[in-house]
Amino acid sequence: MKVDKKSLIILVALLTGGNAQGITLQQAVLAASTYDSELAAAANLHDAESQKRIQGFSGLLPEISLSGNYYKQDQPDASYAAGVKRHSYTLNMTQPIFDLAKYATWRRADASADLADITYMSAQQKLIQDVSNAWFTVIYSRKQLATLQQEKRAYEIQLNKVKTALQVGDGTQLDIDEAQANFDRAIAEMLSAENELNNAHINFSRMTGLPAEDIREDNMQCLFRSSNESLQSALERAVQKNLNIVAARHQLEEARSDIIATSAAHLPVVSLQASYGGNWSRGENENVWDSIFGTTNKTKNTYVGVNVSIPIFAGGRQLSQSFESLSRRDQALQLLEDARRKTIQNTQMSWLGVKNGLEKINAYKRASESAKKKLASTIFGKEVGLRTLVDQFSAERDLFKSMQELTEAENNFLKQKIILAASTGDLDYSTLDTYVCH
User: Fold this and answer.
1) Which of the four CATH numbers 1.10.3470, 2.40.50, 3.40.630, 2.20.200 does domain 62-98+268-310 have?
2) For the segment 96-128, what is each residue's pLDDT rounded down to a tens digit?
3) 99: nearest Cα among 273, 252, 328
4) Which residues contact 196 (CB under 8 A, 6 or more apart)?
5) Topology classification of domain 5-35+99-266+316-435
6) pLDDT digits (tens, 9 = 90+) for 339-386
């Protein structure tokens, strides 16, 4: 699906103009469509390759040309004229009647133009996938950092408490060491998360030209739901619509056109040729002798005929080219099969990734709830003397770890959904609306 650049600019202006609530995923992708240099280069290449369709078809149409000349011939030794001026023009037309090579050229050009369409669609799809991943990565990094900041504050409070308790004789050095270790680890992980968030911001801004700080974090809980589509249905759609498979089909069509072209080298070429023209000459200093010797003359001519060219022997070059084209056709067949197998594999993996990812999200949600209950029970047990402060620290670590794992599982699930949409050929600008909770 090729999107007009001017339309994209208007859409971006409408969607981002006066946007006080932040950048949505749709706005980010549309902005990248006008900002990304790689996509712009792909668009220019598409426009160039699309011209091959016209160039190939033009070989089946007549060729018309007009030629003319003018020159002066001096005759210094002639007694009846000093020179002669000659003029002529010719209008030529050639129309192929039977030329299999020109037909093959047109057929190959048509396949090349179709391949250019698919190549550009692949570039668009890659941009959508990359920007979506970058957008979700920013949100994921923010959540991870927020969790680690919360963990760091909790350990800081605990550290202050155990230090105060030790001063009044109600604590141990082991409690302080444990709290200090947890606090230091939380700071180190928080710094690492800050670095990852900064990298995510840089990557997002590079692709879109927009500040990642303005990304709006919508409620995405509606995205974490199961799909009723079966694996077999996804595979059937992938085999039909996957862009890598479609591109391989067009490449196979190019190879088959080359076979026709090399076969045409053994066949005659028939063309219709016609021309119309005029010639005239005039003596520079005309006199009576010009009419006698014919230095003034004017003629017109018309020519219509059929030209037949039959190849006989070309040193074996044509036969070798035929063998070459057959081998390249077989190569294209194998590449098509390879694209089909890889697509099936990627679709299976991403479909299972989505299915298992949703199960992991639900499992981590239950784990987070259990960790909260465990922490509450541990705190109560500590108050009645059944648990120690170290047990409480361990329960807190489990809670924060389950929160981070849940965030990571949600991020991986969304990325698997994008990969699955790309594998089945469904990832385009219109599908971005499915990644928004209304």
Assistant:
1) 2.20.200
2) 999 999 999 999 999 999 999 999 999 999 999
3) 273
4) 141, 144, 145
5) Outer membrane efflux proteins (OEP) (1.20.1600)
6) 999 999 999 999 999 999 999 999 999 999 999 999 899 888 988 877
